[in-house]
Amino acid sequence: MEVRRSKRRRRTVSAYRDGDKVIVLIPASTPRSQERELVEEMVQRLDRTDPRQKPSDEALAQRAQTLAEKYLPEKLEPYSIRWVRNQNTRWGSCTPADRSIRISHRLQLMPQYVVDYVVLHELAHLVVPDHSASFKELMAVYKDQAKAQGFLEGWSATSS
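Predicted structure:
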């Protein structure tokens, strides 16, 4: 990691990768006491947006299993779940007949509670294939449901 202080830079802090090295650009006037905190924040931001950090299908399957065990009342029959790039109008989809779940790649860099909500929503469709009262009752156990829905609605509104 390399920290570069710039006399021209007044307020903004930025970072980028140069191969395996992280370069953080900060204003020269930044107090040394704030430097470490700013650098850590920028590295975390880079890590969140780094394509090398995107979760794999295996990690998604493990997370789905954890969510199913924690939130769903019955053990699920075997199912498949994977990230897909061809799903741009839905966050996730489920085909109960063949027990397959597809999750949009757009979720890969979103907060974990949002990904968990979409995965749990699709897992719940393996139990209740529609959006009936039974389905809503099943989903009610996820405490971050409203927060995740709000996040997705906000994201959709700003990216349309």
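Summary: Residues 32-49 form the longest helix (18 residues).
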